[in-house]
Amino acid sequence: MTTTISSQDFIASIAESLQYISYTHPRDFVQAMARAYEREKSVAARDAMAQILINSRMAAIGQRPICQDTGIVTVFLQIGMECRFDTTGSIQELVDEGVRTAYNDVNNPLRASLVTDPAGKRINTKDNTPAVIYTELVPGKTVDIRIAAKGGGSENKSKFITLNPGDSIVDWVVRTVPTMGAGWCPPGILGIGIGGTVDKAMVLAKESLMQPIDIQELIAKGAENTIEELRLEIYTKVNELGIGAQGLGGLTTALDVKILDCPTHAASLPVAIIPNCAATRHIHFTLDGSGPAHFTPPRIEDWPKIEWEAGESVKLVQLDGITKDEIATWKSGETLLLNGTILTGRDAAHRRIQSFLKEGKAFPDGVDFKGKFIYYVGPVDPVGDEAVGPAGPTTATRMDKYTDMMLNETGLIGMIGKSERGDATIDSIRQHGAVYLMAVGGAAYLVSKAIKKARVVAFEDLGMEAIYEFEVEDMPVTVAVDSRGESIHKTGPALWSQNIRDYRGRS
Q: From residue 91, how far is each of 41, 129, 161, 206 by CA, in Å?
């Protein structure tokens, strides 16, 4: 006898699961991050992890997104061959309806980040569809669903190589991780796929990220096969790189390393890496025809009780009327609390600014970057009395190609984002006496509480990529590149990789 899966139950389960993971970290992730926080010796990295954990708890309580980038939806479906659906629609249509329902929920709207015509006009689809789906027919009478919402910052750092059969996978991974920068918001999980074909290795890497975090249990019991040996060796050597939380330097870069493999051609050794960021979002559930899936509310007691407090060395900064002379006193690695007015802008806004400058057109009213800071962010829509929804930083490296233009032609003096800047951009920052500040990726809801007023001032048609004006109060940031060109993303990991080597030498 076959099992009938109600299309409405299926759609509702997809929608509810996406809502749930938007504000609820998996329990094993919270525990792993808390362990890393407790053992961390780097002050900057420990501070970043504290913000991530506080943000995670706040999001679970407030049922608002952990990160403003609520991701591209990926679904792994295993459909029992004795199942049928009560619809003539496709699986793609059913999943997309669930995604559409979740992302347009008025109580917790999620950011629509997908664009159609990706090589051309890049027009937002407005509902975050379509999802990416992998479907497998298997024996049985149930539908097994693993679903994730993967952020662009970590997805963009994915890597692939076809090694020679005798090459070292570990050596390639250890060489490659530093090239990924901090845009994937470490500490997180590294998913690795080995074997198959080029496309299969990438899917294996993505699928491996659905597995539970268990590296500490593996360390305790010891490796029993080649894959477990690889996991342990890569976990140790990646953390010895000293990259640390948010790339600031520290003891923990990877919370776990997951690996799936597949038989491959005798001449090939395909290897893929896909990182999961500090906003790890995934869930696993099964439908058996008895109704929609239900998700147990998180136990707030599972989160560590951490309070973030500004230390004595933290500087209170008033941005309105700030001068380059004051900026010149800031040093790389310092923590600031920002107050005043900032403008926002991401890729699409920068492209439009570029076209305005080339055509000699005046900017819209309210867009004046002279003596101002720009925040690289695409916020979630607000609900209730929020000024703005979760509004964490996007990867600043993507704006590198526009930085010289902005500093030369608009009077901009400072930028706020996440991750490192390239060497040419650092030189431009130094030459202009400007500064780059870093907000913590993965702390979007926490950051949004510092934004007291928000309004769109230009390019409203760009949706979340429009230019906003924010009024902020005590917004925490770290000086990532100071006006002399010193970058914490260079000095921090270099210091901590040496500290780790020294510690091992004394052990």
A: 48, 13, 32, 20
The beta strand positions in 352-434, using DSSP E, are 373-375, 414-417
In a domain, 60, yes or no: no
Shared-domain flag, residues 468 and 328:
yes
Q: Give the C-alpha separation, 466 to 443, whole Å.
A: 21
- In this structure, is residue 486 part of a structural domain? yes
CB atoms within 10 A of CB 82: 12
Angle between helices 169-176 and 226-239 (to 10 degrees): 30
The 10s digit of each residue's pLDDT in 422-474 is 999 999 999 999 999 999 998 999 999 999 999 999 999 998 899 999 999 99
Q: Judge if the upstream peptide bond of residue 187 is cis by omega within 30 degrees of 0.
A: yes
**CA nearest to 267, candidates 162, 173, 159:** 162
Same domain for 142 and 156, yes or no, is: no
| pTM of structure | 0.93
For residues 33 and 187, what is the distance between their CA atoms, to the nearest angstrom?
A: 8
**Token output for 121:** 């006009």
Looking at the DSSP assignment, which residues form a beta bridge with residue 145?
77, 285
CATH for 117: 3.30.360
